[in-house]
Structures are given as C-alpha cells and as structure tokens.
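User: For a benchmark we're assembling, each entry needs the component sequences followed by a predicted structure for the full assembly. Here are entry 17's components. Please fill in the structure.
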Amino acid sequence: MGLFNYWTVIVLMMVGFYTVIARNNLIKTMIGLGIFQVSVFMLYISMGKIADGTAPIRVQPSAGHEAIYSNPLPHVLILTAIVVGVATTALGLALIIRIREAYGSIEEDEILEMDRNS
Amino acid sequence: MNLEQLPILQVILPLLAAPCCLLLRRSRLAWGFAVLVSCSSLLIAATQLHIIHHSASGSISYEIGGWAAPWGIEYRLDRLGGLVLLVLTAIAAVTLSVARRLLQEEVPEERHHLFFATFLLCLAGLSGIVSTGDLFNVFVFLEIASLSSYVLISMGRSRRALVAAFQYLVMGTIGSTFILIGIGLAYMMTGTLNMADLAQRLTMTLDSVYAEGASIENPALPVNQTRTILAAFAFLTVGLALKLALFPLHAWLPNAYATAPTVVSTFLAGTSTKVAYYVLLRVTFTIFGLAFTFGQVGLQFLLTPLAIMAILVASTIAIYQGDIRRILAYSSVAQIGYLVLGLSFATQAGLTAGIVHLFNHALMKSGLFLVVGCIATRQAGLTLESIRGLGRRMPLTMAAFVVGGLGLIGVPLTSGFISKWLLVSAALESGRWLVAVLVVTGSLLAVVYVWRVVEAAYFLEPDDKTTSEPHDAPAGLLAAAWVLLGATLVFGIYTDLPVGVAREAAASLMGVGS
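Assistant: Structure for entry 17:
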C-alpha cells in the first residue's frame, strides 16, 4: 500500500484548504473546512494501522505465530477530534443561519459590502 | 485539606460549573454562581503559585486517575504556568464580577445564563491548556476555549459580531487543525504525547525510539533531525501563530474584539492570546528545546522580523482607527509583537521580558476594555467623535483610560515601563541595537494612538453642550476597571511578583532547553 494513504491525505487537505480560501459562499467555506479536517482524521488513522495488524484485542497466540496489533491510541485520539469537528461544523452552520437572518445573504462579498455601506 | 488535587480542581471546577449555570436559568443566580466559581478558581491558582514558588523542584505534577506518565495524562504546572493561571483567573474573576451590569445593554436577560455557562467553559478550556502536560490535551482544551469564545463573540449587539465570529471560527479551526497535524506527526515519530517525555525522545536516535527489529534507513539519526519532525514543528508554529494573532495572521482579532460584547473583549483581550503565547513557549522551549528551535531551525530569523512588523504596522493602523475598541484591538496585535520579540531573542533576559509583558499587558488591556465598557453604559457611540468632551462628563472613567494608555506607551511608574525596559535592555545585552531602536519607535507610535483618544476626550469640545454634568459609570464597574489599572501602577513600582517569578520561570525554560 505504501504511501497511498498519505498522498490522499495531502490531496484532501489541499482541496479543503483551497475551498476555504477561494469560495465566497459561507456554506461552501464550511464544506471546505470539513474536508480539511477529515484529511487529518485519515492521517491519524493511517499512522496507527500496521500492515496485517488486528484490532488490539488479545488473541491466543497460535504455534509459531505472534499476533500483530494495530496501535489503538491514534484511533482513540481522533475520535475526540471528530467530536470537535462535529461541534465546529454545527456552530459554523448555526452562525450562518444567524448571518442569513441578519443580512439576508450568505455570500461573503455581499455581506462585507453591506457592512461597509452601513 | 488535600492540596495535591488542586491542579485538576482548577480545570474541573469551571467545567462542571458551566452546566450548573444552565440549570440555574435566572440571570442573577447564574451570575452569582459564576462569580463564586471564578473567585474559587482565583484562590486555587494563587495557592498553586504559592506552592510552586516555595517548592524545591519549582513544579507540581498530578497524575489523572493515578496512571503514571507517560501512559496516563499528567497535569504539570511550573512557575510560568502558575503565573499565567493567576493572571487568567484574576481577570476572569474581575470581569465576571461586573459582567451582569455590562451585559444589561448588550444581551437580553433571558440569555444571561447561557452567556455565563459559555464564559465558564471558556475559562475551563484556557485553564486546561495551561495546566496540562499532555500535548493532545492542549488541543482538546484549545478547542473548548475556542468554540466557546466563538459563541461569546457572536453575542455582540451588532450583526457584524456574527460575521466576526464566523471569520474567527474559520481561521481558528484552520489554526487548531494545523496544531492537530503537528501533534500527530510528533506522535508518529516518538510514540508519546507527554511533553516532558516528548522533549526527551526528540533528542534520542531513531533506533532507540523504534521497536527492536524495525527496519530504519539511518538508525543513528536523532529523531529531531527527521523531516517529519521538521514538518510537525512547522505545523505547530503556524497553527499557534494563528491562535496568537501574530502579524500577518492577525486578521480575525480586530473584528472579533471590536464587535464582541465588552465583557467578552475584556476577558479575551487579557487571556486568550496570552494562553496561546504560553503554548508557543512550551512548544519552542520545553518540547523542542532551545538547540532545535533556534539552532537547527532558526525560528528567530522568522519571528524577529514578524514581531517588529507587528509592532510597527499594527501601531500605525491603530493610529488611523476611528473606534476606540478598534484602536485597542490593533494595539493588542502590536503588543503581541513585543511578546514574540522577547521569545525570539532566545536569551533569558528576553524571555523574562516576554513573560513580564504577558502579565502586564493582560492587566492593562483588560482594564482598558473595561473602561470602554464603562463608557458604553452611558452612551452608545464609541467613536472618537462621540467621546469628545468625555473627560469632563466622566472624569474618573477617562482618568482610568489615561493610566492604561500610559502603561501601553511604557511611561515610568507604570508596569508597561518595566516590561519595555526589560525588553530594550535584553535587546541591547545581546547586541541588537536596531531592534531596541525599533521597540522605542513602537512606543512612540503608541503615544500617537493613545493621544488621539486623550485629545478627543479632554481637548475637543462636544458637538452638543447640553450634558455637561459629570456622570461617571456605575461605581462597581468603575471600581473593577480601577482594580485592574491600579494593579498596573502597583506592579510598576513593586515589581517582585511578576519580575521575580518571570525570571525564575525563564531560567527553568532555558535550562530545559539547553
């Protein structure tokens, strides 16, 4: 498998980051932010996985064959980060709803234009 | 009383108090409870600093659930952490004690309990960042503090607060995701998240960190010379610079501070960037170490120019702002430049200056934002035009502003002078003449932007001369502002607490690194 996972991580990260920077629409910014965060989840999960490793539950060693376990810690860590990601997305979307109520638009340039004129 | 449990109590107390605030519902009850919690936090922080300062090792350690580090999560506080916690909880206690009065104009009463709950969550997150000795824990607490501060900022009166909070959310999330990547890469190479353990393993060679029998290309290479660790360091530094609002990554800060409710700007201006600075110190000195950060990577060649740019550019922008809160916000960006400049010297004197300025600036800027809150209780406008003649209408309030302003400039007898003095002498000590001159230039720019406010308040006639009766802010509010700004005067004369502790904190940071 080699470095395939890590290349995917980098591609996803750049796609997400570019979307955050380049898109005007606030929803699309949130989507980009989501993709950006997911790429990091993949990074953590990939680094814990060992080729042929099983889940870290103790198995009876069969004759002449030691069991190889994946490292569970990065997987546990990333559960926390996923929760944080969900909270961030929820808060971001809630803010977008409020922005839409206050400005009647979710296009960033229109909103900044309104702020400048008021 | 069992004082060993204090480090965890510092974090758990506000964390558990937050949902209790939600249950109390009534504004007055929730507020009273939050004040009680923040005062207890202050008491805990003061006790901890006292214990640390008089202990032989200069630090206290706590193992969560009795699991020994590096397997379990360790909370570790040294003098630096103790000092930052003290500032953090002191500002939280002062801000919360006047929060209800300030909120009356800005947040509807039925949402006050939500506000106090979020505020306590933010306090818990910030205390956690400082207390923990585990790198992943830093990320988690950073997110608790950040998410709650986005919410707090969005509660501002004008709709601009929503946009500012959203922009902060996007930039802040990118910053913390960068930090997360950095932590992941560091874990990948060392297999540990405990800061002290990480610091040790980073200097070891690859074959001593890896499992026996692993195939490594270059077994004698130290871990911190690998490209993965360089990438980890880069991600961590950039992520923290975003959280710290280091120029040119400061774009979120002025909008956020200028549109948030004044209680929130008062609290965040004194604490959130300071805590990010604390983490930057931890990462550069404690974890990666002096030799790596300044010898191998050469971070000073990046940080020194950026810090000087922050001082000069942000101070200049501050001069052209029309709103007092924006002046103060840009001034904050400039002051962060001073903090980072102290760090970038990589000398003990420079670090001492940075830590002392952290302490002093937190008090000054929170005090100044509190003065703005005082003004906001008597009139709606906070532009330079609308505060004309305010020196006569609100004499005590504006006098407090002048004291804070003098501190920002660094006039003798204020604590701002102490930190500028330490910074300039640290620069001269290491032969950086040009840097010293530029720091002084930054102070001159501060004279200009502080003067613009003073001039408007004292020397310009108001458009309508109908209300010339002195009518100061409510006494409680005024007292709180004077407590913070009076403290800057006290610490400008009696320098033992900040300077003495900061010197020893800097010595231990340098000691760990070398």
